[in-house]
Amino acid sequence: MKRGKLAQGVAVATTLLLVVLLVSFYFTSRSYLDDVGTITLPDENGGISVGPGDVGDNGPLVDGVEVTPGNVQNVIRTLRRPDQYTFAATVTSSYYNAKATRHVTGTVKEQRRLLQVADGSGTKKILLNGDSYYVWWGNASNPQRLARGHTRFDEDAGIPTYEDVLALAPADITDAGYAQKDGVACIYVTAQNRIDNALGGSAASTDTYYIAVESGLLYAAESRCSGLTSYTMQLTDWEKQDVADDVFQLPNGHIIGNADAAGELQLRWNSGIRAEPPGQAALLFSAALWRGMFIFGKVAQSP
């Protein structure tokens, strides 16, 4: 009788031990899976943690990689980016109470870009390849052709790119790290931009760029000068997709081909094709706006 009770006790104890082991294994496995499903993006301020779906194919490139002002350009340079996609963005330049907003849609395929810039004055279309710049307004049939190296900010869409971030002087970068911008995992870069404005004076702006980790593309940018926000750019939509060649068609029906990649790179770096930094753009706009309002006796009042 005693042996029977002992056997029953051993069986119960064994069963309880197995239950404990199974429960422990379950929670340990869940914890392990949770850790595996988390991408850690560290920086000097602690960083953020995101899911693999938030960073796409760039997850393995940034997981556990600390971003600092000293290495941020190298980290951005290594990100994978689509060579064909569409996007939409909103750009706002402001000077005290005066604002100008433009809505930009774009299609990109390798070295070609088709941009449509809409503001209160109408819609401007811009088509670029490696060495040429075509621009026309509305339904015009004869586009103007320029060399890309001769374009300026007011002839372009006013949107900086990740390449502008790579072109920053390292000494001008004051802060960098990871941040959630409107729920999008981004690498941010803050730089000081001291420039001579169109009025003959000198001013400094603080420019901040947000590069989406998932796409490697510029997601947002802003510039502040004298404590006021003078420029904002926000990507409102983007989609990776195959783009047909006939999208890059001039009003006369001519389809613009792709340019040599080496020639494009040479033009980009030697001829100043990049859009002005947001601070430069904002101050150019502000100076022109100020002159116009002064001439017509409508100088904006400080808020």
The residue ranges in which pLDDT falls below 50 over 5 or more consecutive positions are 19-36, 260-276, 283-303
Please count the helical segments: 6
Share of helical residues: 25-40%
Element-level helix/strand string: HEEHHEEEEEEHEEEEEHH
Head-to-tail CA distance between termini? 94 Å
Structural class: alpha+beta
For the largest sheet, list the strands in their spatial order.
Answer: 8-7-6-5-4-3-13-12-11-10-9
Radius of gyration: 27 Å
The number of E-state strands comes to: 13
Overall, the morphology is globular
Major sheet: size, sense and barrel closure? 11 strands, antiparallel
In terms of DSSP E residues, the strand content is 35-45%
In round numbers, the mean pLDDT is 74
Brief account:
By secondary structure, this protein is an alpha+beta fold. Helices cover 26% and strands 36% of the residues.
Describe the structure in your own words:
There is one protein chain. The protein starts with a helix and ends in an 8-residue tail after the last helix. The protein is built from six helices and 13 strands. With 303 residues, it is α+β, with helices and mostly antiparallel strands. The radius of gyration is 27 Å and the shape is globular. An eleven-stranded antiparallel sheet has the order 8-7-6-5-4-3-13-12-11-10-9, with helices on one face.
